[in-house]
C-alpha cells in the first residue's frame, strides 16, 4: 500500500481552494522555496494518520487553521488521503469499486464551547461517504515514522527503555524463548562478575550497613550485577558506539612485513594503505576477504582494534544516518499489526537542503 494522493484545504499556508499532491510508489522528493508548505504537507499527513489514535505525537491546534490575506481565519480544515494497493482486510478505507484503492478523510472545525471558548473538534471517516467508521485499528495497521530535520539523534540513541535500539531489539527478539535466552546470559554474566573480590566485598559492605540501619526489621538484602536480569533491563541498557574502519599497524609490529606484502597484491590493496611509519588496515574487510590468514595473524590484527568513540563525539549528519538505520531496521521486520510502512522526513537547515522534503512508502 502507498499514498497516491493527498488533498489539503485551509491548513496553515494552504487556503480555501486547497492543494493536491500526487505521489508515486517508492521515494518521492518535494522541492520548493522556503515557506511554501513542504513541512505543512508532512504535518498534514502525520495529523491525518494519527487522528483516531490514542497516543499521538502531533495535534491539530487552533493556530493550524489557514488565515487569509485579510486576516480572516478559516472555520474548518480538511485533509484527504488516497491510497493505492490497499488490502481488502482494511475494510474501513477499502474501495469496493476500484478494488486496489482506498481513502479516508478528516475535517477539523473550530467551535464554541458552552463556556464561550474556541475548541478544535474533528470528524474522520473511511471511504467516500461521511459517516463510515474509521477506527484506531485501521490506522495502527500503518507503520509511520517521522524523521524530523532538527533531531538530536545522539540523545535518542542513548540507552533507555524507549530508545530506537531498544525498539529494534524488542522487534527482533519477539519470541519468549529468545528473550529468556538473553536474560539467562545476563544472569550468568552477573554471577561471574560477582565472583570478583571487589564486587563481592562491595555487596557485603552494603548489606552489613543495611542490616545495621534497619535493625533486622525487614531483613532485606541487595544484589549487584551489570543490570537486573530482566529483558526490559537489557533493552534499557543497550547502547551503541562507533568503531573506526581503519586501524594503524606500526612498522615495528611483528607482522608488519607479512601484511605489507599483501598490500602489493591487487586483491588486498583496497584494504591496506601504506603511510609513513606503518599501515592503515581495514581489518574486518581484510579478514573476511582472506580466509587463509594464519590464526596468529588474525589475532594480532584484531588486537589492533582497541579504540572506539561515543555517539556524541560523532558528527550530527552521521548520527542521523545511524538513527535512520535503526528506524529502517525496525520497520523492515514484518509485524502482524503493520500492513504498510511510510517514512516522512524533513530537510535540514541550510540554503538548499531546507527546501527538500522526502516521503517514502513501501521501502521493503
UniProtKB/TrEMBL annotation:
Domain of life from the UniProt record: Bacteria
Q: What's one Pfam family the UniProt record gives for this protein?
A: AAA_15
Q: Which ranges carry the Endonuclease GajA/Old nuclease/RecF-like AAA domain?
A: 1-220
* The name this protein goes by in its record: AAA family ATPase
Q: Which organism is it from?
A: Candidatus Faeciplasma pullistercoris
Amino acid at each position: 500500500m502507498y499514498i497516491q494522493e493527498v488533498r489539503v484545504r485551509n491548513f496553515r499556508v494552504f487556503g480555501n481552494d486547497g492543494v493536491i499532491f500526487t505521489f508515486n510508489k517508492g521515494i518521492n522528493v518535494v522541492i520548493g522555496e522556503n515557506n511554501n508548505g513542504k513541512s505543512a504537507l508532512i504535518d498534514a499527513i502525520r495529523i491525518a494518520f494519527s487522528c483516531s489514535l490514542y497516543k499521538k505525537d502531533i495535534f491539530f491546534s487552533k493556530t493550524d487553521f489557514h488565515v487569509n490575506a485579510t486576516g480572516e481565519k478559516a472555520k474548518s480544515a480538511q485533509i484527504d488521503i488516497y491510497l493505492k494497493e490497499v488490502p481488502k482486510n482494511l475494510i474501513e478505507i477499502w474501495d469496493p469499486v476500484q478494488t486496489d484503492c482506498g481513502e479516508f478523510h478528516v475535517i477539523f472545525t473550530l467551535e464554541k464551547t458552552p463556556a464561550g471558548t474556541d475548541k478544535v473538534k474533528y470528524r474522520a471517516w473511511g471511504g467516500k461517504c461521511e459517516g463510515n467508521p474509521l477506527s484506531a485499528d485501521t490506522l495502527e495497521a500503518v507503520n509511520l515514522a517521522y524523521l524530523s530535520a532538527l533531531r538530536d539523534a545522539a540523545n535518542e540513541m542513548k540507552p533507555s527503555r524507549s530508545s530506537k535500539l531498544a525498539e529494534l531489539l524488542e522487534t527482533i527478539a519477539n519470541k519468549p524463548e529468545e528473550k529468556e535466552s538473553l536474560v539467562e546470559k545476563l544472569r550468568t554474566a552477573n554471577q561471574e562478575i560477582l565472583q570478583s573480590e571487589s564486587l563481592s566485598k562491595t555487596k557485603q559492605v552494603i548489606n552489613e550497613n543495611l542490616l545495621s540501619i534497619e535493625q533486622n526489621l525487614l531483613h532485606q538484602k541487595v544484589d549487584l550485577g551489570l543490570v537486573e536480569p530482566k529483558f526490559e533491563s537489557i533493552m534499557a541498557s543497550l547502547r551503541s558506539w562507533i568503531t573506526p574502519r581503519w586501524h594503524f599497524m606500526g612498522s615495528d609490529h611483528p607482522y608488519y612485513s607479512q601484511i605489507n606484502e599483501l598490500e602489493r597484491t591487487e586483491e588486498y590493496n583496497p584494504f591496506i594503505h601504506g603511510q609513513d611509519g606503518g599501515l592503515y588496515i581495514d581489518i574486518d574487510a581484510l579478514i573476511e576477504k582472506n580466509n587463509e590468514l594464519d590464526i596468529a595473524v588474525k589475532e594480532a590484527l584484531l588486537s589492533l582494534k582497541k579504540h572506539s568513540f561515543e555517539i556524541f563525539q560523532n558528527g550530527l549528519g552521521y548520527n542521523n544516518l545511524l538513527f535512520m538505520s535503526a528506524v529502517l531496521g525496525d520497520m523492515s521486520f514484518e509485524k502482524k499489526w503493520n500492513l504498510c510502512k511510510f517514512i516522512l522526513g524533513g530537510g535540514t537547515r541550510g540554503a538548499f537542503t531546507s527546501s527538500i522534503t522526502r516521503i517514502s512508502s513501501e521501502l521493503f
